[in-house]
Specification:
Length: 591
């Protein structure tokens, strides 16, 4: 009898050991049926700790929260219980029956998978209007608003969009993240940097609220008609007060995830009037001043002067072309250098743009630079205006006299013309008597080159051996090869960017790849480690000047933004030149 009792105890112990040793890894959902406007919680739970957890791709959901990890230990009747959970909060993208595919985990060298879970997503359901429901309270106490400065601007007139997050006094916000950035199609856009988030008091629907300004954007519409400003959407963690209180009588807060949107806005853009539009109008809209300024008006031949065509004021300064100088053909003129000194704030672009021409006169005389004009649309008077520069005369005091022109065989001297007299000696430089000498024949056999061609292959054998060893060492240097490859790719993509000037999409893709591969070569970091803060920190540690680092970070931002905003060929050329210059400066400064 005692023997049977002992056997039973042993079997019971073994059974309990097997139960506790059995690995469980399963997926659990908060509900199997939900509306498309509701959230789903998915828990991946295991009873033993594991490594290399890989969640499913959630292709038909938007992940609005998670992964959150929780671990618990407990002992019951001397038996240890362990639980580890990875939690995700999901928002469905579409209706229908949707599968949540398998997650995987590695436990003690074995790979375990969850079962596929199917949930049904129905049409939007009415949210409960229950004052005790945290979701409902959050929906009533937090709002995202897009404030647009003007709903019916003219083409190329600046408007601003300010995004404000309003929160009621009794509700709190832990953090937020943007889940859907607006793409401002058919607008030139620029975000204005916000230094720090400042909480302010205001009114929403006549009630007291607190609010923060999340984003400020300046837009210039690039075509007329009804244009849509896409909504900004945020995922927000909201702290909602409950009816429960803690030991000290304070209300216990409940956390909920909520997706909020500013909603889309329609802007009715007015075309510029056709009546009175100048023939040379190039799209300038705003309030401008126009000048043509020369560095000097008197000089000697072969000296140079600068002529600057400049527009200053407030308006779409980066979105139109400056008029070109019309100069006499006897003046040597170089392609203008474009410069911009423009800042953007809530009033739009302000500053100046200019084209600087380098002019080199070759002959003595007086040369007029004819008056040129600049036309723009004035928003205050809603009419076109024209500004003329006035004629400028360049007086070349010393130098050779111009004796001919290619056009009409006339010379210009102090403004007067005289006929050019052709000389009979004008072709005297052509030789008519040949001075020919005979050349002795040479033979290759037994010549110096003959013996060299026999000996050189033998002498080259040691050199080939040394080169082969160097190549083997180089091939074995895996890390060095990655750096050299990245350096070559940077040069190649920079070259591709230059070839793609004028094609915005291809240009900025190539430029971004060039900058990334340059960083890989210089900082020895992988693409997955790229963050602007880390790049800035590494460059500063390597003794690169702050202004050069700022310019490099600015180029990376330009590459990200430029694909979604209108960009002129001039701006692309400037970004290319800035990239080449910045890379050169980093090469010189980096330690």
């Amino acid at each position: 009898m005692k023997l049977f009792k002992h056997i039973a105890i042993v079997l019971l112990f073994l059974a309990s050991s097997l139960v506790t040793a059995q690995v469980k890894f399963e997926a659990k959902v908060s509900k199997n049926k939900l509306g498309i406007n509701e959230r789903l919680r998915v828990d991946f739970e295991m009873n033993q700790d594991g490594d290399n957890f890989v969640p499913p791709d959630f292709e038909n959901f938007t992940v609005v929260g998670g992964p959150n990890t929780s671990v618990s230990h407990s002992w019951l009747n001397g038996v240890r219980a362990y639980s580890k959970i990875y939690s995700y909060f999901l928002a469905p993208k579409q209706r229908g029956k949707i599968q949540i595919k398998q997650a995987t985990i590695e436990i003690e060298g074995e790979i375990y998978k969850t079962q596929v879970v199917t949930v049904e997503v129905t049409q939007a359901v009415e949210q409960p209007k229950d004052g005790n429901n945290a979701e409902y309270i959050a929906s009533q106490n937090i709002h995202l608003v897009a404030e647009v400065s003007k709903d019916n601007p003219y083409l190329n007139e600046a408007i601003t969009v300010v995004y404000k997050l309003y929160v009621s006094p009794d509700t709190g916000v832990d953090n937020w993240r943007e889940i859907d950035n607006p793409r401002y199609n058919d607008f030139w856009s620029q975000n204005i940097n916000i230094k720090g988030i400042k909480v302010e008091n205001g009114k929403f629907n006549g009630e007291d609220y607190r609010y923060v300004v999340l984003r400020k954007t300046v837009l210039y519409p690039q075509k007329s008609g009804k244009l849509e400003i896409e909504p900004l959407s945020l995922d927000v963690v909201v702290n909602v007060p409950t009816n429960k209180r803690d030991f000290f009588g304070q209300r216990i807060m409940s956390q909920v995830h909520r997706t909020i949107s500013a909603g889309s806005r329609t802007i009715n853009v007015k075309p510029l009037p056709e009546a009175g539009k100048p023939l040379d109008f190039s799209g300038a809209v705003g309030d401008f001043r126009f000048n043509v300024i020369t560095s000097k008006t008197e000089l000697n031949a072969s000296e140079s002067l600068q002529a600057r065509v400049e527009v200053t004021g407030n308006g779409n300064l980066k979105l139109f072309q400056l008029p070109r100088l019309n100069l006499p053909s006897s003046l040597e003129v170089y392609e203008p250098e474009h410069a911009e000194n423009v800042t953007t704030n809530l009033n739009g672009m302000q500053g100046s743009i200019s084209d600087s021409y380098t002019i080199v006169p070759q002959f003595k005389g007086k040369y007029p630079i004819p008056s040129i004009s600049f036309s723009y649309f004035d928003l205050k008077t809603e009419s076109y205006k024209r500004i003329s520069s006035g004629e400028i005369v360049i007086d070349v005091l010393e130098g050779p006299t111009n004796s001919s022109t290619a056009d009409n065989n006339f010379a210009v001297n102090n403004g007067s013309k005289k006929e050019v007299v052709l000389s009979n000696d004008q072709f005297a430089f052509v030789k008519t008597d040949a001075n020919l000498t005979s050349i002795e024949p040479t033979y290759f056999f037994k010549s110096t080159w003959f013996w060299n061609s026999l000996l050189l292959p033998l002498l080259a054998i040691p050199l080939v051996i040394v080169l082969r060893r160097k190549k083997d060492e180089r091939d074995a240097d895996v890390y060095g090869n990655k750096i050299r490859k990245a350096d070559k790719l940077a040069k190649r993509y920079l070259s591709e960017a230059k070839k793609a000037l004028g094609n915005k999409e291809a240009f900025y893709i190539a430029l971004e790849k060039a900058l990334h591969n340059y960083l890989k070569a210089k900082l020895r970091i992988e693409t997955s480690e790229f963050t602007k803060d880390k790049i800035e920190s590494l460059l500063l540690k390597r003794k690169v000047q702050q202004e050069v680092v700022d310019e490099f970070i600015g180029l990376l931002k330009n590459c990200e933004l430029a694909r979604y905003t209108p960009i002129t060929n001039v701006e692309m050329q400037q970004d290319y030149e800035k990239a080449a210059r910045t890379i050169s400066l980093i090469d010189k400064q980096i330690n």
